[in-house]
Amino acid sequence: IMNNGGIYSIKISGMRGGHSGVDIDENRGNALIELAKILTEREDIEGIGELLGGDADNAIPRSAHAKILFSGDQDELHNWAREKTLEIQTRTDNAKVEITIEETEHDGEFHEKHILHAFVSLDSGVETW
Length: 129
What we know:
Blueprint: E1 6-13, E2 18-19, H1 31-39, E3 45-53, E4 59-60, E5 64-70, H2 74-92, E6 98-103, H3 117-120
Antiparallel strand pairs: 1-5, 1-6, 2-4, 3-5
């Protein structure tokens, strides 16, 4: 993807996290999954430069961040982040959840958002089939 818009870092933090083998059934929320879901909602997020989160292989991520290529209105993006923060706080019953957005730089490539579909199809917690 060509870089024709602004580059922003978007971060979700304050999730409860925990051990993936002990706390997985408590539906604490997974920051990587939550971030991937909200990133796919916006048409003006045109690309993903990176998506990182979690402290260990066996931990439920408390925070995650992504670098995004954004072509829309910056003020509207910040308003949307506040709305999403409140939505996730309510759904997870956790007032510590926060979504922050800052302008940044990214030297690498941007990828189309369809790479997030695997995350978006998952829910936090135990998966059963």
